[in-house]
Specification:
83 residues, 77% helix, globular, mainly alpha
Length: 83
Amino acid sequence: MTEHESDELLADQVLDGRHPSVEHVARFLLVPNPNLPAPLYAIADAYAAHTRRLLGLIPDGPELTAALRDLLVSKDAAVRAAL
């Protein structure tokens, strides 16, 4: 099993039963792009770990979805900044 496949499997487990809006945004955070070079992948992976922690702490709702969207924007900016 590749690292990407294991990330996908973990995302499926973490998101099982979550609200569709939470699942949609969180999936972009939980599964780093396998085509990223190692230093950029490490940044995206740090965001995946933080996302898993947030999903364990905060119940589904509009504010969680908003927090995840903002986290996604932050992750994208961090990866771009490291280019």
